[in-house]
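Researcher: Structure for this, please.
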Amino acid sequence: HAQAVFVLQELTTVRVQDPRVQNEGSWNSYVDYKIFLHTNSKAFTAKTSCVRRRYREFVWLKRQLQKNAGLVPVPDLPGKSTFFVGSTDEFIEKRRQGLQQFLEKVVQNVVLLSDSRLHLFLQSQLSVPEIEACVQGQGSQTVTEAILHYAMSNCGWVQEEESRP
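Model: Predicted structure, token format:
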């Protein structure tokens, strides 16, 4: 008898959604975005996750990925335009699309996927300094523990539900 072989296609969906202005009206206001990830890839610790990150953190991530990837090119981020013609909403939407394209390309790259900073960025709410400490083994948790701890805390799902209109 011929044996049926099912090859499970590895799929990772990453969405950048729901831009929100934080500290609105103050000099240190910024926009952060929800990053929703759903995957069946063995590369990821949690199969679904949901975190909020701001543009500045993406810039840090790109820099770190490039440092570790050597000659492997890291995808580009949308530009940090200070002169933008059009509404703020348009700018935020353009940036959201650019950030999503950036992440979509990053998660398809095996070399970049091996960087644990990327995993903490996508699947934990640790700050940049905390990610650095964790990767260098100076945090209170390992990379996997930090991600599982965040997954268990269920913040991601609560947030997912709340944002439904």
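Researcher: Any notable elements?
Model: Residues 12-162 form a domain with the PX Domain fold (CATH 3.30.1520.10). The mean pLDDT is 86.
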